[in-house]
Structure formats: C-alpha cells, structure tokens
Write a structure and sequence with these properties.
The complex is a heterodimer of chains A (376) and B (337).
Chain A: H1 5-19, H2 31-46, H3 65-77, H4 86-99, H5 102-113, E1 119-122, E2 138-142, E3 145-156, E4 163-169, E5 180-186, E6 192-197, E7 206-217, E8 221-222, H6 228-240, H7 247-264, H8 269-298, H9 307-329, H10 338-352, H11 360-371
Parallel strand pairs in A: 1-4
Antiparallel strand pairs in A: 2-3, 3-7, 4-5, 5-8, 6-7
Chain B: H1 12-27, H2 30-38, H3 43-55, H4 73-85, H5 92-106, H6 109-121, E1 126-129, E2 137-138, E3 145-150, E4 153-164, E5 171-183, H7 185-223, E6 225-226, E7 229-230, H8 235-260, H9 264-289, H10 300-312, H11 317-331
Parallel strand pairs in B: 1-3
Antiparallel strand pairs in B: 2-5, 3-4, 4-5, 6-7
Helix pairs in contact in B: 1-4, 2-3, 4-5, 4-7, 4-8, 5-6, 5-7, 7-8, 7-9, 7-10, 8-9, 9-10, 9-11
Classes of the chains: A alpha+beta (376), B alpha+beta (337).
Chain lengths: 376, 337
C-alpha cells in the first residue's frame, strides 16, 4: 500500500516540526549522543516513520522511491538528527530484502526499525581497503555455524553499535572474489574486541574490530556460503547510489549556503557568488538526476555501474559546497562549535566522502571500464 | 516545485526522435558538410538543413496553425542536442528555437504568416542579434531573415561587417536595425521568451557536442597504441574521461527540467552546467588525442571549436551564474516548497 504522496509529505513535515529536538543533539559519536540518537530513532519508529520505504510487516509504510525522496527532503529541511542506524537501514536492510531469508527478515528487521539493534559495517581490513577482495579475516566451519577470526577496521559507529555485518574468507583455496561469505555477528559476543579510533575531527566515529574465534550460527549467514562478494556488491550499489546520499541533504545544505552568502553580504565579490551558484546548481542537478533514476527504477529499470557516477558527483559536490561555506566564514571558519561550527563539522564529514563507499579513484575506473568501455 | 512536478527524464517519443535524427546525421557525413560551410560553400549545408526539415526539426517550435508541429521546447531541445552531437553548421539555436519562439510570441498574424511557414518547412533560415548576450548575428549570410532584438523592441536587420569565429563553420555579422516589427511590453515578453529558448537550444548543442567529444575520445583511446598497449588502459586517461562522463550525466537533468519549465533560474543553471561539461569534454578530448587533435586534419576540431564558440554565446557563464543567484537569493534556495 502506498501512501497519498502530497498527504504523506505534509504528514512528515508536520510530525517533524512537532518532534525534531530544538538545537542539535550531542555528537552521535559519544556515548551520551549515541543514546540520544537511539531514543530519537525510537520516537520515529513509534510514529512508523523510521523506515517508511519498508513493508508494513517490518515497521514501514511501503512508501515508493519517490515518496522516500520526499521524506528525505523534509527530514533534512527540518534539520533532524543524523540517522544513527544508517548502516543497517541503508546497507544491510536492502541486502536482507534481496538475499536474506524470510526468517532473517522477520527476526532482524523489526528491531532494526526500532533501533533496538544498531548495526555497524565490517568490511574494510588493514590490508583490504580499495582492494576489498584482499580480505583475510577468516570464517572457519564448525558445528552449527562458523568461527570468525581476524581484524576489521574503519567500521563506522562500531564503538557503540550492537551488531555488525561483514565479509569473511570461508574458502582460502578459492579465487580472490570467491570463497567469501556474508556473515552477521554481535559486537558483544565472546571473542570480540572493539577499539574506537579518533577521526580527523577528534571523535570516535569509527573503530577497529578484533575477532578471535567468534561463533556465528548458520542462521546468521546471508545468502549462500561463498557467495558473499556478489551479495556485498549489491549492497555497495546501494551505498554508492540512491540510499546513502539522498539529494535532500545537498538541497538543504545548498539552500543554507545561499542564506549564508546573503547574510555575509557578498564578502568577496563575484568569485564566491559563482561558487555558491555552482554548489546550488550541483545540488539541483543531483536532485533532478536522482528523481529521473527513481522513475526509471520504478518502471522496472536497474541500477548498476551508473551508481559510480553519482557517488563521485555527490562526494565532490559536498566538499566544494562546504569549502565555499568556510571561505564565506573567513577567519571564523576554524572555530569549533556553535551555529557556524556546523559548517566545519559538515566540511570534515564531507572530506570522508571521496574515500568511503569505494574511493573516487575506484569509481572513476568503474565508470571508464564498465560504462565507457575503455580497455582494462 | 513539488516532488510530483519534478521532470523525470525524457519521453520514449523524444528518445525515438533523437535516435532517428542521429541516424540521418550519421549517414550524412556532417563533417564534410561543415568543412564546405567553412569554405563558404553553403549548398551541402542547405541540403542537410532541408533533410532535417523533412524529419520535422525546423517545424518543432512553430505552432500547428502556422504549418509547424507545435512540439514544445522539450522536443526542440532534444533535437538541438542531436544537432550539436553531429556539429551541424548554421544558426541552429536561432533558426530552430529562438526566432520561431520570438515570432510566435509576438502574436501578430501578419508576422506569423510571413515567416513561420517558411521556417517550419526549412525553406527559410533565420538568425538574430540580441545584445549584449548576442552582439552579432550568427551565419547571417546563410539566413533569409535577420532580426535585431533589444529589451523591448524587435526589428528587421541588415547584416554588415562579417567576422570570423573560432569555429570555422560559423561567422558573426554586425547588424543594423531597420523596420520595427514590435515594440513595448508585448515585444519585451516575446524577446524574453526567445532568449530562454535560444539559450536552452545552445546549451543542448553544447551537451550534444560534449557527448560526441567523449565518444571520439573513448574510440581513440581504445585504438591508439603507445608503450605496447592502448592508451585507454592508462588510469590517467580513464579518470579524465570518467570526469567528462560525470559532467555530461549531471548536466542533462538540468537541461530537461529547464526545457519543461523555462524559468530564468533553471535555464541559466542548465547553460552553466552544459557549458562546463562541454568544455571539460573538449579539454579532455584534445589531451587524449594528443598532437593529432591539435590539427584541422582531424574532424575533431569541428567540435572543439564549436564548443568554444557556443560557450560564450547566449550569455556568459558569469551572467548566467548571476541570474541563478538573483533568483535563489530572492526566492529562497530550496527547490521544493
């Protein structure tokens, strides 16, 4: 069942206006902030607004892609809190919908929707970053399941999350892209050690995860053992494409930038004006492009390597937009905290964009080889 | 703008029309036509123009009751993109978009009957100057109708001194105004409308030219062997061309949205993005081709120079960015209400 689009947007707007906390919550990367963000997710879940695109059976509303985009636009316009569960909501959940079992969906999705269980991603390793297929962490067969050993790193939210999903080498004899298995594990299980890592901005936004013989039952394997690479790549498509970076985020940031420029009274003549214009034009292009893609998907199309075009575009746009804001702030740009400090936080966050979800170098190679057909 | 009104790509009909145009132009050896045009021989170009008219290109912007198709700006833009894709010579944005829009919007039956049927049939080619955006009339010597438009006046015009363009298949003429065709608020509204239509048609040509430059670069990089391997295997080449693809991919939605609702804000956003994307394509194409690209022996130069010429036509990047900022600073930057 699909909600009435205009009525849905209005409901979301009204609800957010009534419920979004005044003033920003403490950082999601602190114990207190994490708990506050979890409480916010629960408040949204109670209004059935935490996972609007999911089927009603799992706590959603069966919203279409276009309605989800409208939800996102309202969400960012309302300056609502960061989605603490975003790794689970936008990366694991689509994978479970595509490759999970009915039993897994029934067991895992409702607590994810209520933020009772918050998920971290455990893909990268110290020796497997851009070259993700170089994964060395092992999954060894045992009675009724698997034992995990090795090191995962750059795992967002892992310092405070409950569960993690990751790729493990289950058949070392198979080729690089074969013999990998997609497994779910508890961050509180025996044999798991989490070491928070301070990021560029000083907070522990991600962590290293050490696994020493961690038991995972067969019920927590997603898809077939050995099929993990293919399954993970379908999640990567979501990460690069529509779900992780919805256009509402950039539309709202560009509108705030225009406001900042207007208040600053054209401090640097036309050069900053042109950069503000370009940021706005870029956000508008990303929005229109996303709507066109959503319409194509709704008509039965698929999203493959084209996702790489969007990933490079939004990540470069995000950096340029925030750099422009900092240039408008001039000598005040370096100040931490306060209202203007949100631009600095946004800038520091934007700097990670060209690196995570597949570096932009990897994406450009994908574009050149798979979309343009240049020789390998 | 609400989500429901967001333009979500092109119609199947538009895609089909563009594909048939592409078929005609691919078979027409347009580079040879453009070289003859550059040498001052208009005849193959005029034959091509009539072939395009046969497919309906020149009738798209002309209302049905004046012998046209009344197909609307989105169809005009899709056609102009394909003309740019093949570097068709002649005053494309002027004759296929701006002048028919201008005469139609002036709403005088006498003017409409005098020129629109000929424009629709492809028998009449038109051009105009619109200072300061278009200080000269493009290819006035090939045009049977030359206009000079000001903010609130439209005149017939006489071409004067002719200047060469960086694009060899394009000339620029000074014009002097003659008979006044319209003056006052109605003329101002018609000129504004023609300006948006011509700007979008020009942006579409740039996008099409950018696509052609990318295609040529990919072809060349796949064939040119250095160090024992195609240069397209090198990451430095791949990444340049990937950036070209990204620029073109994200310019097109702006163009389509502006064609559906040609506000000053959206037309200017489209022109800025299409110009930047085409220029990036031209720079990369030249670099990837190397020295052979820096010659008139290769047809590539027809696209390289057309991009440079059209980048400054129909308003500079600075003027268009200023128009975007004026609109969003006044109306708020959020694209939805």
């Amino acid at each position: 069942m699909s909600p009435d689009p205009a009525g849905f947007r209005a409901e979301v707007r009204d609800w957010l206006r009534a419920h979004v906390p005044a003033g920003p919550l403490p950082s999601v990367d602190t114990a207190e902030g994490f708990a506050r963000h979890r409480a916010w997710e629960r408040e949204m879940a109670a209004a059935r607004l935490s996972v609007v695109s999911w089927p009603a059976a799992y706590g959603g509303r069966g919203a279409s892609l276009l309605e989800w985009l409208a939800f996102e636009e309202e969400y960012y316009a309302a300056a609502a809190p960061v989605r603490v569960g975003q790794n689970g909501l936008f990366l694991l959940a689509p994978t479970l919908f595509a490759h999970g079992t009915e039993e897994q969906r029934g067991r895992l999705l409702p607590p994810m929707a209520r933020a009772d269980e918050i998920w971290a991603q455990a893909w990268s390793e110290p020796e497997a970053g851009s070259d993700l297929a170089a994964i060395r962490a092992r999954a060894v067969r045992t009675d009724g399941g698997w034992r995990l050993s090795g090191t995962k790193t750059w795992s967002s939210r892992a310092a405070f999350a409950d569960q993690a999903f990751g790729l493990f080498r289950s058949d070392p004899g198979a080729g690089r892209h074969h013999g990998l298995t997609y497994l779910l594990f508890s961050l509180h299980a025996d044999g798991v050690t989490v070491r928070p890592i301070r990021q560029l901005g000083g907070e522990t936004g991600f962590a290293e995860i050490f696994l020493d013989g961690v038991f995972v039952p067969d019920a927590d394997v997603v898809g077939a053992p050995g099929d993990g690479w293919r399954i993970a790549m379908s999640t990567a498509g979501h990460e690069r494409g529509l779900s992780l970076r919805s256009p509402g985020r950039f539309s709202v940031a560009a509108a705030r930038l225009v406001e900042l420029w207007r208040r600053a009274g054209e401090p640097d003549g036309n050069s900053l004006r042109d950069r503000v214009a370009d940021a706005w034009i870029g956000a508008q292009a990303y929005r229109l492009h996303t709507y066109a893609t959503a319409a194509r998907l709704a008509a039965g199309g698929t999203l493959g390597a084209e996702a790489s075009l969007g990933k490079v575009f939004w990540s470069e746009l995000d950096v340029a937009l925030h750099e422009t804001a900092l240039d408008l702030l001039g000598p005040r740009a370096e100040l931490r905290g306060g209202e203007d400090g949100r631009w600095l936080d946004g800038y520091l966050f934007s700097l990670a964009g060209p690196i995570y979800a597949g570096t932009n170098e990897i994406q450009r190679t994908v574009i050149a080889e798979r979309l343009l057909g240049l020789p390998r | 703008m609400t989500a429901a009104r967001v333009v979500t790509g092109r119609s199947a009909e538009q895609e089909q029309f563009a594909a048939s145009l592409h078929g005609l132009l691919a078979a027409a050896d347009v580079p040879a036509v453009a070289r003859r045009w550059a040498d001052g021989d208009r005849s193959p170009g005029l034959v091509l123009w009539r072939q395009l008219a046969g497919l309906g290109v020149t009738a798209l912007a002309v209302p049905e009751h004046c012998g046209g198709l009344g197909a609307g700006l989105p169809a005009v833009v899709a056609a102009c993109e394909e003309l740019g894709h093949h570097a068709v010579p002649g005053p494309v944005a002027e004759s296929a978009a701006a002048v028919p829009e201008l005469i139609t919007a002036l709403a005088g039956e006498r003017l409409a009957a005098r020129w629109l049927p000929g424009l629709a049939a492809g028998e009449l080619i038109a051009t105009l100057a619109l200072p300061p955006w278009l200080p000269y009339a493009a290819d006035a010597d090939a045009a049977g109708l030359v206009l000079l438009a000001g903010p609130d006046v439209v005149r017939l015009a006489e071409p004067g001194a002719r200047h060469r363009s960086v694009d060899p298949a394009r000339s620029l003429s000074e014009v002097s105004g003659r008979e006044v065709l319209a003056r006052g608020p109605a003329a101002a509204a018609a000129v504004a409308r023609a300006r948006e239509a011509g700007t979008l048609a020009c942006a579409a040509q740039l996008l099409g030219a950018g696509r052609a430059l990318l295609e040529a670069s990919v072809r060349h990089a796949g064939q040119r062997i250095q160090f024992g391997r195609p240069v397209g295997t090198f990451q430095a080449v791949k990444h340049q061309l990937a950036d070209v693809a990204i620029g073109l991919e994200f310019a097109r939605p702006l163009l389509d949205a502006a064609a559906a609702a040609p506000t000053a804000r959206d037309v200017s956003a489209a022109k800025v993005a299409c110009t930047d994307a085409a220029r990036r394509a031209a720079r990369a194409a030249l670099q990837v081709h190397g020295a052979i690209g820096y010659t008139q022996e290769l047809d590539l130069h027809l696209w390289l120079t057309k991009v440079r010429a059209l980048a400054g036509a129909w308003g500079s990047q600075a003027e268009h960015r200023a128009r975007v900022m004026a609109a969003i600073a006044a109306g708020g930057g959020l694209p939805w209400s």
